[in-house]
Write a structure and sequence with these properties.
about 300 residues, binds 5,10-Methenyltetrahydrofolate, alpha/beta, amino-acid biosynthesis, Rossmann fold
Length: about 300
């Protein structure tokens, strides 16, 4: 038995793995069914436009993955691969065109953008009802005040995993490490809305380890590989690892590691997401979910 209040664990304790990959596959199946029903009702297929500027190989892989999964979910995918030297005016003109295009229900600009392009200005140019990343100021503000909004895909994916694992989270102490607009801040707001007591640790936090040790729910999104060690984790806690860093191993292969030192954490946590196979697949599944939500917003005026 593992729970967040147990103070000692048997020496052979192993956290249970949170299967994001499997959960995401089930989600995509449900989305596919909903997309078909949406098509029956409106004669419209939800369409997602993904814009990638520059040729970062890792981003190209993600963007291709998104396109394949969009098709599998029965939706249309429109890829826009723009050269590194694209001007902000050109990018804004493309977004304007996609905003007005009735075949496009969701628009995503892959981040980070090359130097010279202002990610905030570009993201804000996307119509709020097509902003499937939920990163524009309207959606971010609506989330902050508790109105319905398009929710950033990664924190939404983490929330769905936590709800599935834990159910009611009221009164639990959730600690989020990382305060980015992309993950940490919206994650903290979502956990607050679940009734958690939420702490946010960031670069200036004095003793992040001591704070983390108080967490019943620990979400780590720092981009700093294996930052969180086994002794940062309260025995039995639920750990969500958002980080993904690609490293080269001694035998010349590459491997993905998270922001949590997994081998240590698995001996202490009650439940933990692996990397890969944890949060990453949920991010893409939530992008598809948001695209369908956006299409409903545009054709039905709400996403019920
Ligand atoms: N506007 C914007 N929205 C994003 O959501 C966004 C972005 N920009 N820029 C880059 C990051 C990164 N990201 C990932 C999505 C899926 C996996 C994923 O599926 N990961 C697999 C492994 C994939 C592999 O093997 O490389 C896993 O964790 O199991 C990872 C990372 C979305 N991002």
């Amino acid at each position: 038995m593992t729970n967040a209040s147990s103070s000692s664990l048997p020496s052979d304790h192993q956290a249970s793995l949170i299967d994001g990959k499997g959960f995401a596959a089930k989600m995509r199946q449900h989305i596919r069914e909903d997309v078909l029903a949406f098509h029956e009702k409106h004669g419209v297929t939800p369409g997602l436009a993904v814009i990638l500027v520059g040729n970062d190989p890792a981003s190209e892989v993600y963007v291709r993955n998104k396109a394949v999964q969009t098709h599998h979910a029965g939706m249309r995918s429109f890829m826009h691969m723009l050269p590194e030297n694209t001007s902000e005016a050109e990018l804004l003109a493309l977004i304007d065109r996609l905003n007005k295009d009735p075949e496009i229900h969701g628009i995503l600009v892959q981040l980070p953008l090359p130097n010279g392009l202002d990610g905030r200005r570009v993201t804000n140019a996307i119509l709020p009802e097509k902003d499937v990343d939920g990163l524009g100021e309207i959606n971010a503000g609506r989330l902050a005040v508790g109105l319905p909004s398009l929710i950033p895909c990664t924190p939404l994916g983490c929330l769905l995993l936590l709800r599935d694992q834990l159910g009611d989270m009221k009164g639990q102490h959730a600690v989020v490490i990382g305060a980015s607009n992309l993950v940490g801040k919206p994650m903290a707001l979502l956990l607050l809305a679940e009734g958690c007591t939420v702490s946010i640790a960031h670069i200036h936090t004095r003793d992040t380890a001591a704070l983390a040790r108080q967490a019943d729910i620990l979400v780590v999104a720092t981009g700093c590989r294996e930052l969180v060690r086994g002794d940062w984790i309260k025995p039995g806690a639920t750990v969500i690892d958002v980080g993904i860093t690609r490293i080269k191993t001694d035998d010349g292969k590459t491997r993905l590691v998270g922001d949590v030192a997994f081998d240590e954490a698995v001996k202490v946590a009650g439940r933990i997401t692996p990397v890969p196979g944890g949060v990453g697949p949920m991010t893409i599944a939530c992008l598809l979910k948001n695209t369908l939500t956006a299409a409903k917003l545009q054709l039905e005026g709400s996403a019920e």
